[in-house]
Amino acid sequence: MSIDEIEQNIRDISAMDLEELRDTWRRRYGVPPTLRSQPIMRMMLAWRMQTDAYGGIDAETRKTLARTGAAQPVGRDLGVGAILTRNWKGKEIKVVVEEDGFRWEDELYPSLSSAATAIAGSRWNGPRFFGLRDAA
Question: Residues 101-116, buried b or exposed e (16+ Cβ, 10 A)?
């Protein structure tokens, strides 16, 4: 496949809706991921097409990535004992960063997003909920 063909395929992907992305994945690779996010599905499909054409990550890069270890959840970098606060529905919410997670009302959550989801009662991105990331 030529560079021009790959670039055209990626342009085509950028115009597809979720069902078209899933159909394209199904034709090329089998059962598609159960994602509901068009942007992520587009990136994954484009990545697969490019790796088919150019190859994936080389062995040296894989070793380097393996040495970096697991990504640290956003918020942990604030340090153990840091307190994140937010007013939510008229109530001041305080979440404490601990060694093993994030504590809210005597409950320890493994991620800031799981704490934010418990607080809000619906799925939330924790860093965004607490203002550690800009809104999209």
Answer: bbbbeeeebebbbbbb
**Is-contact 136 85, C-beta < 8 A?**
no
Query: Is the pLDDT assigned to residue 36 strictly greater than 70?
Result: yes
pLDDT tens by residue, 41-73: 999 999 999 998 888 888 998 888 888 777 666
Residue-wise pLDDT for 92-102, tens only, equals: 999 999 988 99
Q: In whole angstroms, what is the distance from residue 48 CA to residue 51 CA?
A: 5
DSSP string, 1-66: --HHHHHHHHHHHHT--HHHHHHHHHHHHSSPP----HHHHHHHHHHHHHHHHH----HHHHHHHH
58 and 75 Cβ atoms separated by less than 8 Å:
no
User: Which 8-state DSSP code applies to residue 129?
Assistant: H
- The enclosing H or E element of 91 equals strand 91-98
Sign of CA dihedral 124, 128, 129, 132: positive
- pTM score over 0.85: no
